[in-house]
Design a protein that fits this description.
The complex is a heterodimer of chains A (about 100) and B (about 230). Chain A is of the alpha+beta class and about 100 residues long. Chain A is about 35% helix and about 30% strand. In chain A, strands 2-1-3-4 form a 4-stranded antiparallel beta sheet. The radius of gyration of chain A is 17 Å and the shape is elongated. Chain B has about 230 residues and is an alpha/beta fold. Chain B has a 9-stranded mixed beta sheet, with helices on both faces. In chain B, strand 3, helix 2 and strand 4 form a beta-alpha-beta unit. Classes of the chains: A alpha+beta (about 100), B alpha/beta (about 230). Chains A and B meet through helix 1 of A and loops of B.
Chain lengths: ~100, ~230
């Protein structure tokens, strides 16, 4: 078993009204950053878990997102994981690349 | 005639709901979210509040409570289930109703009386109202903005599943009358079979004229009238 650090990013779905993002967008404009075209607010979750492989860890995290962590009506998610290093994309080759 | 009020950690509308059900003649019981079994009941009520502090998303964690499996089974068997405010959010999270309730477009908690129009007076929850009747009922929520994709909205409208809509004094569903940005001014909706109702306004807080409004009373008398027929 290997210990993986998982990062789950949850974002409001495109086209969905994001009142919080809109309010922050407005605040940035009033502070002079009027080149900001859009702001969307999501959330990031950090999980540590043990799994047989990177694929198994990703699969588990994806299942968690589908079951409870994200609401498919309003949110999209993506999962990345790392083995004692910075987060990398969740595919086996890239993981092995990161280790070598 | 027995009613269950399902209570989650953080529910705060449970006593009002208990009182409302009792007032119209239900033998009413609190059922804690970790208990199991709803077979003895004729109607299941999910109260308002802030279950689990609204962590993750409103209703998302409550939906995973052991009792929710029984609520889903009860609804699937045709039993009447009413979810108010946080109860509505929980029913959406549980998939008993489509769509989701997100942050109010105005970004502020809205606590005030609103007007809603009765769009369906043929349900076990609404048979003591009349079609098009305008009610004054309080709301109290930060996340009551009803969202669903176009296809779902079309289906809801096509099947006449919107039960309550925010309207103005004249009964028009205007943007000004919409307190939270809900699509199509939706304040409450039902499932395909019409035995699950979720709504953001609080009928259980509009039971006595001396306290502002008694327009919520007919929702509970409707249940008291139709439940014996349903369970017969």
């Amino acid at each position: 078993m290997t210990r993986y650090s998982i990062e789950i990013r949850i974002k409001p779905r495109p086209g969905l009204l994001d009142p919080e993002g809109k309010a922050i967008h407005h605040a940035l404009h009033s502070l002079g950053w009027d080149n900001v075209e859009d702001v969307r607010v999501g959330k990031v979750m950090y999980l540590d878990l043990e799994a047989e492989s990177a694929d198994a860890a990703t699969e588990a995290a994806t299942a968690m997102c589908r079951k409870i962590l994200a609401n498919p009506v309003t949110e999209d998610f993506d999962v990345s994981l790392s083995v004692g290093g910075p987060a990398v994309e969740a595919s086996q080759d890239k993981l092995e690349g990161a280790r070598s | 005639m027995k009613a269950a009020v399902v209570t989650f950690p953080g529910s705060n509308g449970d006593y009002d709901l208990y009182k409302a059900a009792q007032q119209v003649g239900f033998d009413t019981h609190f059922v804690w979210h970790r208990e199991r079994g709803l077979r003895a009941f004729d109607v299941v009520l999910l109260p308002g509040g802030f279950s689990y502090g609204d962590y993750l998303r409103a209703g998302a964690i409550a939906r995973m409570s052991p009792i929710m499996e029984d609520v889903v089974a009860f609804a699937d068997a045709g039993g009447p289930v009413l979810g108010i405010c946080n109860g509505f959010q929980t029913l959406c999270e549980a998939g008993l109703l489509p769509g989701a309730l997100v942050r109010n477009d105005v970004l502020r908690f809205q606590g005030k009386d609103v007007r809603v129009r009765v769009e369906r007076a043929d349900l076990p929850f609404t048979c003591d109202y009349s079609d098009g009747q305008i009610l004054t009922i309080p709301i109290a929520h930060g996340e009551g903005n009803y969202e669903a994709d176009e296809a779902t909205l079309e289906k809801l409208e096509g099947e006449g599943r919107v039960v309550f809509r925010y309207v103005d004094r004249e009964g028009s569903a205007t943007d000004e009358a919409n307190p939270n940005g809900s699509w199509h001014n939706i304040a409450g909706l039902t499932n395909e079979s019409g035995n699950v109702l979720g709504l953001m306004p609080h009928p259980e807080r509009a039971m006595e004229r001396i306290l502002g409004s008694d327009h919520g009373l007919a929702l509970f008398t409707s249940l008291a009238t139709s439940v014996p027929v349903l369970s017969a």
